[in-house]
Amino acid sequence: MSSSSSWSNNRASFNLRDLCDCTKKLKTLTSWTKDNPGRRFEAFPNSMIPKLDCGYFQWVDPKLTPWYRRLLYNVHEKVLAHEEMIEKQKLLVEEMEKELKRYKSKMQKYKDKNKDLNKQLTVHKSRDGKGCCLVLGLVFVLLVMLFYK
């Protein structure tokens, strides 16, 4: 505790801009390495670029015990695995929705085609019915003519 408070006092006594000539603000970031999972630190954004790194780096949080480090790291890995699985499931759902849309479109086309075929069938049935009556009528007339002669 005293080391962090003395560091805070020391930090206030000098200008961090003397360490880094970039115009960016100091950032608090979080480490997710095995040695320092979830441990926050301060650095300038350029510290991630080797040629621009001014070398300023300061831990914000105290170091964890090995047991807590292992626990936090494992939990973090599980969270990442679940997030990855969720993203894959979202992509799968998206793909299935697209496929469902294609099948619905095909089904609508088949329904429309079925409707057209039913109309054609109705027309043919009505024609066949009239044609059948006409043929039967002619046969009847011929039979009557043959028997009444």
Task: Walk me through this protein's architecture.
The chain has helices at residues 2-13, 66-147, and strands at residues 27-31, 39-43, 57-59. It has 149 residues and is mostly helical. The longest helix has 82 residues, at 66-147. The chain starts with a helix and ends with a helix. The model is unreliable at 1-10 (pLDDT under 50). InterPro entries: Znf_GRF.
Helix content: 55-70%
Strand line-up across the major sheet = 1-2-3
Q: Which regions are unreliable across 5 or more consecutive residues at pLDDT < 50? A: 1-10
Tally of strands: 3
State the shape. rod-shaped
User: Could you give the distance between the termini?
Assistant: 132 Å
H/E series, N to C?
HEEEH
Which radius of gyration do the C-alpha atoms yield? 42 Å
Largest sheet: 3 strands, antiparallel
Number of helices: 2
Helix/strand class = mainly alpha
- Mean pLDDT comes to 83
| Strand residues, percent | 5-15%
